[in-house]
Structures are given as structure tokens and as C-alpha cells.
Design goal:
404 residues; Rossmann fold; single chain; alpha/beta; five-stranded antiparallel beta sheet
Length: 404
């Protein structure tokens, strides 16, 4: 895909290039790490900390001497939460900036815009966001939790605690639609049922009709798969009606972008989630990471699950480069398929060779006084949903996203 000169000038103005800090060979060519994220616009609550995470990981690697005796250079683009900008920025990173790897995309819809562009350009791609699972693409690595690691834990825990009848509210795009089907599958497996599912465009902020529908349906649980700043309005409206004291909430998305800190205790307390990360984890690795983030950015308030997955994604890629002794895409992929691992804020995460997804520990988490309190911890969980449909070792030419 080619770009016009005018487009290139606009994109150049929109990019940021990080300085290089590394004790490497004089004159060594930098290794380029691309970042394309929503650092402004309606999804900036997710994208800004993710971009900071790329910065922190790049600086840590450079401070340790870089990779292959070469410094890392970060080039970042802001999509301004405009899906059309993802295509332009991904193309520039691949064709003009000659990025050695790209970390980027918040929404699954954005991932599906840039994934084929980067695959065609043979530019290695890391998608570091929790998502609906099923991406099977040798050029792509996914470091966020999938439904088998998150929803498959959350649904039976909610049913055991609260009851069998579930009402789903979800964002109306591929993540929300597919995750809703996974909730229904897991509910059925554990003796529950989905009594209704409603889907909402990302800019919807009035949920009065949906709340009335829930009141009529009288479910035991409301399961939220809502996404972004506009959808945050649901939790406030739900609390204002007093329904949060009558029907409990579980969510696959609340807290991933620190949404719980924007709610009052009355609005947020008691919402249940499952994630790989919480700032409340008491491990030495997490305490060290929080100190690093605080020193670099002045506050840990915006740090969240997706930022941590991004930080770990950059370090996993770096492990692959070290193992390969090269930044050449095919050699790095082969090295990453050697079950590379990294020990960081969540503990040990490793890459599954067949799916290019992570194996990660997860935790049952409850919102309590605007904090994500860990209620129960689980061991490392495999991405078994994607493993059921994807084997890139046997079928390296597969580029499908399976709707699992």
C-alpha cells in the first residue's frame, strides 16, 4: 500500500521518535520499534499508558546495552481514536520507517485493519490487548488474555456466587459479539443461561432503556462487555437507579483502562473481573515495576492491564531477538516459537509456539474503594480456546481469525 506525499508529511508530523540511551557500539544502526495507538481521542485511557509502556521497556533495554550491540529507537504514531488512521500509520511504519517490529492497536477492529498490512509487508506485529481470541497468524503475537484465560474463570465464579441467569451488555463490534458468545458457552457448561444480550455502538452513552429491560428480565447477574469512555456512563446510570444494590455486576472489561477509578465507591464497589494484573499484586516483581513506572512517569494512577501486557510484549520480543541473534523477521519468529518467557509484573509469562499467544497467571479481582483487590489467584493458564483451532507449527501459512 502506497501513500501520497501529503499523507506522508502529515504522518511525519504526527509521529514521535524517542531518544536513544544505550551503551552500544559507536555508530551502530538503531533497531526501530514502532508504536501505533490511540494516545488521544475516546480510547486514550487505554492507549496512552500502553504507549508509555513501550517507552519504558525500550529505555530499560537501552540502559542494559540495547540489543545485538545496537540501540533501540521508538517511533510512535497517534491514531486519535480514528480507525482510518491505523491503516495509514501501519503502512508508514512498514514502508517508510522500516520498523523491525510494531506494537499496537487497542480495539480488535483496529488490529484487523493493521494485521494484514504488516503481514504483507513482513513486519513483525505484537498485539498487546486482551481480546476475543482466535487470531492465528505467524506474523502476529498476542500478549493479552483470551476468553479461556479470563471469561472461562469469571463466568463460573459469578454463577457460583450469585446465580444462573445472566444478562449481557456488550460493545457492538467483533470483541463484544464474540465474547458474548463465549459467555453463553461457559454459562451453559456450568448450568447457567443467558436470558438476553444487548449490543451498543461505542459512542452510546444512554443506557436507560437497557436498564429498564434488565429490570423486566430480573437476571441474577449482569455481565458487562462494554468498552470505552462513553460506555462508562452505564455504571453511573446503573448505580443512580439503585440497581447495583439489587443485581451484581461482573465484567470482562471494567478496570482494563482504569475505568474503576473514574467511578465513586457507590458506583464501582463489588464489580467482579478476572485479569492477569492488578496494581495490588504483592510480588517483588510488581513492587519493582511500580517503582520504575513511578520514577519514569511521576504517577502509577494510569497504569493498567493493557499497559502491562504491552510492557511484557516488548520484553518478550527482545528475548526473541536475543535468542535469534538477529532482527530478521523469520529468525525472530523461530526464536519466539522456542517458548520464550519473561518474568515481570504479573509473574512469569511465556509464548505458546502453536498459537503465538501467552501463557499467563490470572486472578479473580473485585473493585473495592476504587482499587482492584485480588480475591483469588489462579496458576498459569493456557490459551486453550485458540489452541483448539490454531497450530502455526503445523500450518504456518494460516492467517485466519477463528470465531471460537
Amino acid at each position: 500500500m502506497s501513500l501520497t506525499r501529503r499523507s506522508l508529511l502529515k504522518l511525519a508530523a504526527a509521529s514521535t521518535v524517542s531518544p536513544v540511551f544505550a551503551n552500544t557500539s559507536a555508530g551502530a544502526d538503531p533497531i526501530t520499534v514502532g508504536s501505533v495507538l490511540d494516545t488521544s481521542g475516546i480510547f486514550q485511557l487505554y492507549g496512552r499508558p500502553m504507549d508509555k509502556a513501550v517507552t519504558l521497556a525500550v529505555e530499560e533495554i537501552n540502559a542494559a546495552g540495547g540489543l545485538l550491540d545496537r540501540p533501540l529507537r521508538k517511533i510512535a504514531y497517534d491514531t486519535r481514536s480514528d480507525m482510518a488512521m491505523y491503516s495509514e500509520h501501519a503502512t508508514r511504519l512498514a514502508e517508510i520507517d522500516k520498523a523491525d517490529v510494531v506494537h499496537g492497536a487497542v480495539l480488535s477492529a483496529a488490529r484487523e485493519v493493521i494485521r494484514p498490512i504488516l503481514r504483507e509487508a513482513q513486519t513483525l506485529y505484537f498485539y498487546n490487548t486482551q481480546y476475543e481470541g482466535g487470531v492465528c497468524d505467524r506474523n502476529t503475537f498476542c500478549t493479552g488474555v483470551t476468553p479461556a484465560q479470563q471469561t472461562e474463570v469469571l463466568v463460573p465464579e459469578a454463577i457460583e456466587r450469585w446465580g444462573k441467569k445472566i444478562y449481557i451488555l456488550a460493545a457492538d463490534y467483533n470483541y463484544g459479539q464474540i465474547t458474548a458468545r463465549r459467555i453463553e458457552k461457559y454459562a451453559t457448561q456450568h448450568g447457567g443461561e443467558v436470558v438476553a444480550a444487548e449490543f451498543f455502538a461505542l459512542d452510546v452513552s444512554d443506557f436507560s432503556e437497557a436498564i429498564a429491560n434488565i429490570q423486566d428480565a430480573k437476571p441474577d447477574i449482569v455481565m458487562s462487555v462494554l468498552v470505552g469512555g462513553a460506555h462508562l456512563s452505564f455504571y453511573r446510570q446503573w448505580s443512580a437507579t439503585g440497581m447495583n444494590r439489587r443485581i451484581p455486576l461482573a465484567s470482562t472489561t471494567m478496570g482494563a483502562g482504569n475505568e474503576h477509578t473514574a467511578l465513586t465507591r457507590e458506583e464501582g464497589d463489588g464489580i467482579m473481573m478476572v485479569y492477569s494484573y492488578s496494581k495490588q499484586l504483592q510480588s517483588n516483581e510488581n513492587k519493582w515495576f511500580l517503582r520504575r513506572w513511578q520514577r519514569r512517569f511521576g504517577s502509577i494512577e494510569d497504569l493498567h492491564e493493557l499497559a502491562v501486557a504491552t510492557y511484557q510484549g516488548v520484553h518478550l520480543w527482545a528475548q526473541g531477538v536475543r535468542a535469534a541473534g538477529s532482527v530478521e523477521r523469520d529468525k525472530v519468529i523461530e526464536a519466539l516459537e522456542g517458548e520464550v518467557s519473561f518474568r515481570g509484573p504479573v509473574g512469569r509469562v511465556s509464548l505458546d509456539a502453536k498459537t503465538h499467544h501467552v501463557v499467563t497467571p490470572v486472578h479473580l479481582i473485585e473493585v473495592n474503594d476504587q482499587k482492584m483487590t485480588v480475591a483469588k489467584s489462579f496458576g498459569e493458564r493456557q490459551p486453550v480456546d485458540t489452541q483448539a483451532v490454531c497450530d502455526l507449527v503445523a500450518n504456518p501459512a494460516d492467517t485466519t481469525q477463528y470465531e471460537i
